[in-house]
């Protein structure tokens, strides 16, 4: 397949692919050199995660290319209103186990052990949990990781995949088989087309084992060459689930698992977790600027204010300095799912105006905004319509339940989630319902 060199957004995706390729090459070298079982398990897990990200990025790149081709052919992209992005957070993942009485209570039979972890994917954002060693002394597989997906659509599909690998007790470096470094590294010096071809072939072949039938990161699993099949521990997809916005609820909830393979792991067929979501338009300013607002019924009673559209309110302050000093707003205009908006063109006397009609405490209330520059009127009109759409349609389920995801402190913003220890993660990620 031929991949030309792309510009703009394509370059950023290519950079991400190259970064994952380098990480995959490093994990391959580590796997070839490691002499400890724990090191080999972690390196194999990293290989699988990197390959999942490479395939997801390649899929995104293909979609972008298809859109560009359609645009060049004269077909305009859809003019439908695009909803704002949101945050989705999953935490406290638990998977119960169902042991036989003779194994758990009487401690009979051979003691098996396996290493398990979860792969979480939402669009091109993919995270892996920490490894958990499982034997018959455990009743639940507990993942203490907290994962936040920062830019998701309201129609998101969050796929949770459970992988396992049987643990060999008599581990030795020779048990891992012959070592060969992946050819991904050699592709980095060539053109973008060579890089992507090498990344795709490697991601589709190396270390990405699946036994499921559904589409997802683990569904690409062509037969691997003998030398790659012997490269380190192998993880198998044993169960998976897909969560959507309808699964977002208050508290700790149970979800069905689809069992993908007949494994030694005695899964019960369910998983429990906390899933919360929050639209970015509810916590970030959508638009701000100078406005004139009519106060009361007097046509001549106007007030110059500094307006900020955020969440379900248009906050009107006396000045921008009042916003920075966190003073109370002069006026709060509710923006709800049933809010009506109407724009009037400039006439010989008045500037362009926006009329907002909404309900407050069960009563119909109307507000009038005046802007003196046509471009400002258009910006505010589009921003208000967009916010009403986000509240009334796109994120209606979440708005009605009002789930809040509090953000990381600045010191943690640049630290990958999987690198945070359990206690740090529990302190900096807080979920609350208001």
UniProtKB/TrEMBL annotation:
Top-rank lineage group of the source organism: Eukaryota
SMART domains registered for this protein in UniProt: Hr1
Record domain REM-1: where: 8-71
Any matching Pfam family: Anillin
A GO cellular component annotation in the UniProt record: actomyosin contractile ring
Protein's GO biological process: actomyosin contractile ring assembly; mitotic cytokinesis; septin ring organization; signal transduction
InterPro entries, alphabetized: AHD, Cytokinesis/Rho-signaling, HR1_rho-bd, HR1_rpt_sf, PH-like_dom_sf
PANTHER family: ANILLIN/RHOTEKIN RTKN, RHOTEKIN
Name listed for the protein in its UniProt record: Putative rhotekin-like
């Amino acid at each position: 397949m031929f991949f030309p060199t792309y510009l703009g957004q394509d370059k950023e995706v290519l950079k991400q692919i190259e970064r994952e390729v380098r990480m995959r090459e490093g994990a391959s070298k580590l796997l070839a050199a490691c002499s400890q079982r724990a090191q080999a398990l972690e390196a194999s897990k990293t290989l699988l995660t990197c390959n999942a990200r490479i395939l997801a990025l390649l899929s995104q790149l293909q979609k972008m290319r298809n859109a560009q081709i359609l645009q060049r052919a004269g077909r305009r992209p859809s003019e439908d209103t695009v909803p704002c992005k949101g945050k989705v957070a999953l935490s406290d993942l638990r998977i119960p186990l169902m042991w036989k009485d003779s194994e758990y209570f009487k401690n009979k039979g051979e003691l098996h052990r396996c290493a398990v972890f979860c792969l979480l994917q939402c669009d091109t954002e993919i995270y892996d949990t920490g490894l958990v060693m499982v034997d018959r002394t455990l009743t639940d597989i507990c993942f203490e990781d907290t994962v936040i997906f920062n830019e998701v659509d309201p129609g998101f599909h969050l796929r949770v995949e459970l992988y396992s690998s049987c643990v060999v007790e008599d581990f030795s470096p020779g048990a891992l088989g012959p070592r060969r470094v992946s050819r991904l590294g050699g592709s980095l010096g060539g053109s973008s087309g060579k890089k992507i071809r090498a990344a795709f072939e490697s991601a589709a072949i190396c270390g990405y084992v699946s036994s499921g039938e559904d589409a997802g990161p683990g569904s690409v699993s062509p037969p691997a060459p003998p030398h790659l099949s012997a490269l380190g521990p192998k993880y198998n997809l044993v169960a998976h689930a897909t969560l959507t916005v309808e699964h977002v609820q208050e508290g700790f909830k149970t979800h069905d698992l689809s069992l993908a393979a007949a494994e030694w792991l005695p899964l019960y067929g369910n998983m429990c977790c906390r899933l919360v979501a929050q639209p970015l338009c509810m916590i970030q300013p959508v638009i701000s600027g100078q406005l004139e607002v009519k106060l009361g019924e007097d046509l001549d009673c106007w007030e110059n204010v500094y307006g900020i559209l955020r969440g379900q309110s248009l906050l009107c302050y006396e000045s921008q300095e009042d916003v920075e000093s966190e003073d109370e707003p002069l006026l709060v205009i509710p923006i709800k799912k049933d809010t009506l908006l109407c724009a009037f063109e400039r006439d010989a006397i008045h500037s362009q105006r926006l009329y907002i009609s909404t309900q407050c405490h069960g009563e119909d209330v109307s507000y009038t905004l005046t802007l003196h520059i046509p471009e400002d009127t258009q910006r505010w009109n589009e921003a208000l319509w967009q916010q009403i759409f986000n509240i009334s349609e796109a994120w209606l389920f979440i708005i009605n339940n009002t789930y809040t995801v509090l953000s990381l402190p600045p010191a943690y913003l640049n630290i990958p989630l999987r690198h945070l220890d359990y206690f740090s993660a529990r302190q900096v990620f807080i979920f609350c319902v208001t």
